[in-house]
Write a structure and sequence with these properties.
The chain contains 5 helices and 8 strands. The protein is α/β, with parallel strands linked by helices. Strands 2-1-4-3 form a 4-stranded mixed β-sheet. A 4-stranded mixed β-sheet has the order 5-6-8-7, with helices on one face. The longest helix is centred in the C-terminal third of the chain and has 52 residues. 13% of the residues are buried.
């Protein structure tokens, strides 16, 4: 009778002595096909090459095994997974709330936030909040949403048209750029700023060296006459009568 005792099932492949089959289809270190060989022969070749025998296709008949450096393989796989997670783009929906009778200065501030979100590749949910008698004037909110969409049309588009939701009116803006593109551009801009700062530092060091050399030259010029003045002039010897 089968009984589950708990515990996690390992996702790692079987290697070396953990492989329990009479024969395997062997792949060489460079990917060459060796053929079907006894397990003992495959393990012997692994020791000869100072590599591991790794089961890469357990469901095949016979299982496919490859000669490789398993520690190096795990490290490279972990680095690739880390890089993939780093470049993975997560869709984020930001929210911005406005009032139908918003002040021009507040509108510019809110619009600036929307522009920043769209540049980052994020979607933006715009919510117009109605209060009191403003609920009887939904056209005010609709015109405000249309105005905002028109002001940022270079960066985003209307993904969800304005619709009434209780006391609020909602519209969703989507960015023209994908999240991955926005992240790549941000990294390039950061690298460019860093290189520019390093360039400024190099120029400053060069100017400082030039100024120091100029000061040394000036000191040499001013000290030269003084040195000449300190040297007594030779008195001509008296001539014999």
């Amino acid at each position: 009778m089968w009984c589950y005792l708990g515990g996690s099932i390992s996702a790692e492949p079987r290697i070396n002595d953990r492989i329990r089959v009479p024969e395997v289809r062997l792949v060489g270190p460079s990917g060459e096909q060796v053929g079907i060989v006894p397990l003992a022969k495959a393990l012997e070749l692994a020791q000869e090459y100072d590599l591991d025998l790794v089961e890469v296709a357990a469901t095949a008949r016979p299982p496919v095994c490859k000669l490789m450096d398993y520690g190096k393989f795990k490290y490279e796989s972990a680095m690739k997974a880390r890089e993939a997670r780093k470049n993975q783009a997560h869709t984020v929906i930001k929210e911005m709330k406005l009032r139908p009778k918003i002040d021009p200065h507040d509108y510019d501030t809110k619009k600036g936030h929307v522009v920043r979100f769209l540049k980052q590749g994020d979607k933006v949910k715009i919510t117009i909040m109605f209060r009191g008698r403003e609920q009887s004037r939904p056209e005010l909110g609709f015109r405000l949403l249309q105005r905002l969409a028109s002001d940022v049309e270079d960066l985003g588009f209307i993904e969800s048209n304005p619709k009434q939701d209780g006391r609020n009116m909602i519209m969703v803006l989507g960015p023209h750029k994908k999240k991955t593109e926005a992240m790549a551009e941000a990294r390039e801009a950061q690298a460019a700023r860093k290189a520019e700062r390093q360039g400024y530092a190099t120029d400053d060091d060069a100017e400082a060296s030039t100024d120091e050399a100029a000061e040394v030259s000036t000191d040499e010029v001013t000290e030269a006459p003084a040195a000449a003045a300190e040297t007594p002039a030779e008195t001509p010897a008296p001539s014999e009568a």
